[in-house]
Specification:
The chain is 58% helix and 2% strand. It is an all-alpha fold. It has one domain: Orthogonal Bundle (Endonuclease III, domain 1), CATH 1.10.340. Strands 1-2 form a two-stranded parallel ribbon. Helix 2 (16-29) packs antiparallel against helix 7 (77-97).
Length: 177
């Protein structure tokens, strides 16, 4: 968790493959802790073809059964089927907007929102932007993209800087935005 926080979390991300990874991992997190998912990240990369959305979009019933047997990932049929569905939706959005990055960052005006929270408990689980993102994504057929999951994606991808102001990463991320 510390390495993830210190090197990845909140860093503005503009790579479609990595954004797809966070879409899948944050969806898998629903009802679980992020530390659980982070521990399974390597297994997810292997199980989901290194998060190649073109390959995942082609998964079928045989792949679902294979994934349900994989002890390295969360073996939940709805979450697995959601990942496949979301790969298809991801590719449709990418075709429409030129990149998933262009689409997703549009919800924050293509700039990181730098918040100024002093305590972890002050950080909200969602925002008006994550609610808009969730609504739009659901309208496009995505699943496991409620406002809280969308906010987690925004935090992971650096669309919001939610490091508390006393955290050494706060100012380092603020400089990148």
């Amino acid at each position: 968790m510390e390495k993830y926080h210190d090197t990845e979390w909140g860093v503005p991300l503009h790579n479609d493959r990595k954004l797809f990874e966070f879409l899948i991992l944050d969806g898998a997190q629903a009802g679980l802790s992020w530390s659980t998912i982070l521990k399974k990240r390597a297994a997810y990369r292997k199980a989901f073809d290194r998060f190649d959305p073109k390959k995942v979009a082609l998964y079928n019933g045989t792949d679902v059964r294979r994934l349900l047997k994989n002890k390295g990932i969360v073996r939940n049929r709805q979450k697995i089927e959601s990942a496949i569905n979301n790969a298809k939706c991801f590719l449709e959005v990418k075709a429409e907007f030129g990149s998933f990055d262009n689409y997703i960052w549009g919800f924050v005006g293509h700039r990181t929102i730098t918040n100024r929270y002093k305590r972890w408990k002050d950080i909200p689980p969602r925002s008006s932007e994550s609610e808009d993102m969730s609504r739009d994504m659901k309208g496009r057929g995505f699943s496991f993209v409620g406002p809280t999951i969308c906010y987690a994606i925004m935090q992971s991808a650096g669309m919001v800087n939610d490091h508390i102001t006393s955290c050494f990463r706060y100012s380092k991320i603020a400089v990148l935005t």
